[in-house]
Amino acid sequence: MASFKFDPSKQELRKTLKEYEEIGLRRVWSLGEGGVGSGKTWEAVNERLGPDKASREPQ
C-alpha cells in the first residue's frame, strides 16, 4: 500500500510530489494535447535531474 506524504515546508507541487514526479508532470503538461510517451518523459526527467540523480537505463 502506498503512503501519502505531505510536507508543508515545501512549495507548490513539491508538498506532495518527489522531484522526479514533478518534472515528469510538468513535461507532460507542457506538451499539451499532443502528449508524450513514457520513454521520452523518462529521458527528459533524467536530463533535468543530471547524472548524480538520474535513474538507471531501463532494462
Topology (elements, then pairings):
Blueprint: H1 19-31, H2 38-49
Radius of gyration over C-alpha positions, nearest whole angstrom: 13 Å
Mean pLDDT: 84
The helix-strand sequence is: HH
Uncertain segments: none
Keywords:
59 residues, mainly alpha, globular
Entry summary:
This protein is mostly helical and 59 residues long.
Q: If you had to describe this structure to a student in words, what would you say it looks like?
A:
There is one protein chain. This protein has 59 residues and is mainly alpha-helical. The chain has a domain at 17-46. The protein has helices at 19-31, 38-49. It is built from two helices and no strands. α1 (19-31) crosses α2. 42% of the residues lie in helices and 0% in strands.
